[in-house]
Task: inverse folding
């Protein structure tokens, strides 16, 4: 088997894992949420709480990676987390109980963090030495692929009047299919990954401000990401775009990571982070001013096109600013990201319920995305590397 073939197989495994655990396991909540709210009579606050439990699980999953058991066993942790993601997705369909739904979403969030961190560490460590930046960042196109697939499933289920429980079961089935290439193509853990885990990590102002910027990004993107479909379906004139919006954002997200990497090569990584953050922020801000079908479509394209690029470049940039191993730097960044994600749905859901309006939450989403990009840029300019 050729070296290039092995690299492609690894990239495919990474794409499928991100698609099942994050693009579908986590983000399918967005297109399914309107159906859950209607059936379970959920307020925006309660819908936000379900989302926050998922992101709380994501936070604890990020912490868990810092323990030797996980970091010394990247492949087994990675595969096990994929299985937990599939099971928790299926279990969400088994009950109307609010607390149990929160529990399944918590487990799904925990698994999602482990999949992202372990998978990214495996992909980066394997492909870096072969100088395959496009294949390395293709890993993150799984976000868009999963988002698009989840939207298609929801639209098909809606057409055939399948309930939200049935939608979750179909999501689990798609995840199971995506798991097949993951378990077949994932390589063994590289030896150099284990050796570097014992090194003493060091941080500086560059890395700390990158973490803060990533927390702002997590807070901002998740507001739009949680409530966009629900927002559109609540409007009589825009209801028909409710299911389509997430599909459009998902398709736009597929080439995002590779595109923004190329922009980073032409300028600098932090400049590319600023631009991609502003693109997503502009997409969210468009909904604050004028509501028309063409502009909503453009909004979804801009938002989706920026998000995976921000994730991939932040994790990549974190490796150069953090004086330690890849797994630890990704885990720390993801922890800050998770804190923003936990606060976003809860605060925005409460605002939507209090004002009976989505627009202030959307404005906060756009501002937070922009601030995230600024912090990432300034972290590169204010402090000198040590």
Result:
């Amino acid at each position: 088997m050729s070296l290039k073939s092995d690299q492609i197989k690894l990239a495919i495994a990474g794409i499928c894992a991100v698609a099942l655990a994050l693009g579908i396991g986590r983000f399918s909540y967005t297109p399914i949420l309107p159906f859950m709210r209607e059936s379970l009579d959920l307020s925006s606050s309660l819908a936000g709480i379900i989302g926050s439990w998922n992101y709380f699980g994501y936070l604890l999953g990020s912490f868990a990676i810092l323990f030797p058991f996980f970091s010394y066993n990247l492949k087994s942790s990675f595969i096990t987390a994929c299985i937990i993601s599939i099971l928790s997705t299926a279990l969400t369909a088994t009950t109307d109980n609010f607390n149990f739904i929160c529990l399944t979403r918590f487990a799904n969030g925990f698994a999602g963090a482990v999949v992202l961190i372990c998978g990214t560490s495996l992909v980066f460590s394997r492909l870096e030495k072969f100088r395959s930046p496009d294949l390395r960042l293709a890993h993150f196109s799984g976000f868009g692929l999963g988002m698009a697939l989840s939207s298609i499933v929801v639209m098909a289920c809606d057409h055939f009047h399948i309930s939200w429980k049935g939608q979750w079961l179909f999501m689990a089935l798609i995840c199971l299919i995506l798991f097949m290439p993951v378990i077949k193509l994932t390589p063994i853990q590289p030896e150099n990954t284990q050796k570097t885990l014992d090194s003493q990590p060091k941080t500086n102002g560059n890395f700390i401000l990158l973490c803060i910027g990533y927390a702002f990004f997590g807070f901002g993107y998740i507001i739009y990401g949680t409530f966009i479909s629900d927002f559109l379906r609540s409007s009589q004139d825009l209801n028909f775009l409710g299911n389509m919006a997430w599909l459009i954002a998902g398709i736009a997200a597929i080439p995002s990571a590779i595109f923004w990497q190329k922009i980073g090569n032409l300028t600098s990584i932090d400049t590319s982070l600023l631009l991609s953050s502003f693109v997503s922020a502009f997409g969210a801000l468009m909904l604050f001013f004028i509501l028309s079908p063409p502009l909503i479509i453009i909004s979804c394209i801009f938002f989706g096109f920026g998000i995976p690029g921000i994730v991939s470049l932040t994790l990549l940039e974190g490796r150069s600013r953090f004086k330690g191993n890849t797994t630890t730097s990704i885990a720390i960044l993801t922890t800050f990201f998770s804190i923003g994600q936990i606060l976003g749905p809860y605060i925005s859901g409460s605002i939507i319920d209090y004002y009976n309006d989505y627009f202030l939450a959307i404005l906060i989403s756009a501002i937070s995305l922009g601030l995230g990009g600024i912090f990432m840029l300034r972290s590169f300019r204010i402090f000198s590397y040590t």
The chain has a mean pLDDT of 88. The chain has 17 helices and no strands. The chain has one domain: 3-381.
